[in-house]
Design a protein that fits this description.
heterodimer, A: 276 residues, MetI-like fold, 2 domains, 14 helices, 0% strand, globular, B: 314 residues, mainly alpha, 73% helix
């Protein structure tokens, strides 16, 4: 029994040490965001802000139009999630519940795109959007979601659909249902949790995306939170109180969404990772 | 009589199967149409155009575009483009540090989390949480933590009488520092490892207990072989990701100091969007594609000798 107890204790110590290391950046951000500049730079470091400088948030978020950035980000996130959920669930249905000639070949080809570095398609895609007059609009950031919504999501949903018994479809066929009814009345309601996983991943990807908005958006009133935060950092270097307040404000919605949907996240990663 | 009937029904049945097959093909194609169209428009099409562009001197601001053949590739191969050589060195250095560090550290954390400890879910959440933080925010937090004069890390080091570092601001420390900041976000890899570990049947460990083997024996002869498919998956993903680092270069370092963090994709982006040398940048993109393919292929080739698949399936 002794070695087992020792082992447990050592594991706890290691896990607590790791947790502290992973948490300190968050704590440091929050504490800096609530301090005045004088207190921020005190050595040795102070951990508890006093007085609590809530004002940093109002200042940081009004110097640049962060409300505007927030709204812009929400628009992009909303349409990305909508497009991705519709098109990836439809595609995943076609790749798992209908047996058609060439299905697996087509799926393998689409899957191979996952390995392709984004740099290869970047320039022609950019030039294409530009020639269509969609540079500095949200189109390049939103429209691709309606065309499959990323092979990763199709793959994830397909993995999930394949766990649903075939008998359900066959019973529906006997009742005279077509493929579309099977999709909308049986498969989609049964895969609610997988659809939530896809929505959450898409939400975070769109919320966190930096490269896309950087390439496609020019006018600052169209900027997203990620771009706005970067612009803020460029203009207010070393104003760490304000920079940390703005960062904390951008991070907070992600953390909330993650904590609410946590169960689904871990399920989703497991679903794709295991069969990878 | 009987034969006659059979002769009549057989073709009819074949007909039925064929219409059913045709119907399935129609609906299958229809359901997957948005995805296939997306692939053609956003992947296959641009790939072909990109290959074509890489053979021209296309630039947004130039009037005429000329055909240069393999000139770009020849220039890249000759080593005349010093920044290209530099960006390759920087990126390789990063990959060499980042991939093994990611695999080792996340496997170690996953092994700890896989032990039967209380509060396991909470520890897992804490480890995963940083990976959902937007890259810009991550960069800002770490810039502040690693600030040479006032950052927390140097303050802690000096209070312990340890040597401090210039971190992101010195040529020889910038890449390891970027690796450090990205290590904060390895939670996704940890969770995938956890999934792999939870699939290992407990009986195997019990068998070793009976034989009287220690934890090292278990790790070496059970855990590592049985989790090797997950190691393989995570290694491939880590290589593909590490070669394409961009945000860190753009936000954290701007490629500096003195090009010491001129990551490949950052150089490509600069060539394409700042210098508007789209043709040359397309050639750069194909070189990167080739490099990633070679590395992935190499890992796939070696997989036979170290990736252990249970039973017949995967």
């Amino acid at each position: 029994m002794r070695p087992a107890v020792l082992k447990q204790t050592l594991a706890y110590i290691a896990l607590i040490a790791i947790s502290v290391m992973f948490l300190i950046p968050f704590i440091w951000m929050v504490r800096s965001s609530l301090m005045n500049l004088g207190q921020i730079f005190v050595m040795p470091p102070v951990w508890i802000p006093s007085p609590v400088q809530w004002d940093n948030f109002t200042r940081a978020l009004t110097i640049l139009p962060f409300d505007r950035f927030f709204l812009n980000t929400l628009i992009i996130v909303f349409f990305s999630v909508l497009g991705t959920v519709i098109s990836s669930s439809v595609a995943a249905f076609g790749f798992s519940r209908i047996s058609w000639k060439g299905r697996n070949t087509v799926f393998a080809i689409l899957l191979s795109a996952m390995m392709l570095p984004g740099a290869v398609t970047l320039i022609p895609t950019f030039l294409g959007w530009r020639s269509l007059g969609f540079y500095d609009t949200y189109m390049p950031l939103i429209l691709p979601a309606f065309f499959g919504g990323g092979i990763f999501n199709i793959f994830l949903l397909r993995q999930f659909y394949m766990t649903i018994p075939r008998d359900f479809d066959e019973a529906a066929v006997v009742d005279g249902a077509g493929y579309f009814q099977i999709y909308s009345r049986i498969i989609l309601p049964l895969s609610r949790s997988a659809v939530i996983v896809v929505s959450l991943f898409t939400f975070l990807n769109a919320w966190n995306d930096f490269f896309g908005p950087l390439i496609y958006l020019k006018s600052s009133e169209k900027f997203t939170l990620a771009l706005g935060l970067q612009m803020f950092q460029g203009a207010y270097t070393s104003q760490w109180d304000l920079l940390m307040a703005a960062s904390a404000a951008v991070v907070l919605p992600c953390v909330v969404v993650f904590l609410i949907g946590q169960k689904y996240f871990l399920e989703g990663i497991t679903l794709t990772g295991l069969k990878g | 009589m009987a034969t006659e009937i059979r002769m009549q029904t057989a073709p009819a049945q074949g007909q039925l199967v064929r219409t059913k097959e045709r119907k399935a093909l129609f609906w299958g194609l229809l359901f997957t149409l948005p995805a296939t169209l997306g692939f053609l428009i956003f992947t296959a099409g641009p790939m072909i155009v990109s290959l074509f562009l890489s053979l021209t001197d296309y630039s947004v601001f130039k009037e005429a575009t000329g055909w240069v053949g393999f000139e770009h590739y020849a220039r890249l191969m000759s080593g005349q483009d010093e920044l290209f050589v530099k960006s390759l060195q920087v990126t390789f250095y990063f990959v060499v540090l980042k991939v093994p560090a990611t695999i080792l550290v996340s496997l170690a954390i996953a092994l700890l989390l896989n032990m039967n400890v209380k509060g396991r879910a909470m520890f897992r959440t804490i480890v995963y949480l940083p990976s959902i933080v937007p890259a810009v925010a991550t960069a800002m937090i770490w810039m502040w933590l690693l600030n040479p004069d006032l950052g927390l890390i140097n303050q802690l080091l000096s209070s312990l009488n340890l040597p401090t570092s210039s971190w992101l601001y010195a040529e020889n420390t910038v890449i390891p520092s970027v690796v450090l900041t990205t290590m904060w976000g390895i939670g996704g890899t940890v969770v995938i490892f956890l999934a792999g570990l939870s699939g290992i049947p407990q009986q195997y460990y019990e068998a070793i207990d009976v034989d009287g083997g220690g934890w090292w024996h278990k790790l070496r002869h059970i855990t590592i072989p049985l989790v090797s498919p997950t190691i393989f998956f995570n290694t491939v993903m880590a290589i593909i990701g590490a070669f394409q680092v961009f945000n860190e270069a753009y936000i954290l370092t701007g490629g500096g100091p003195n090009n010491a963090s001129l990551f490949y994709i950052f150089y490509l982006w600069r060539t394409a969007f700042r210098d508007t040398e789209m043709g040359y940048a397309s050639a750069l993109a194909w070189i990167m594609f080739a490099i990633i393919s070679i590395f992935t292929l190499f890992v796939f080739r070696t997989a036979k000798s170290w990736v252990h698949y249970e039973g017949e399936g995967r």
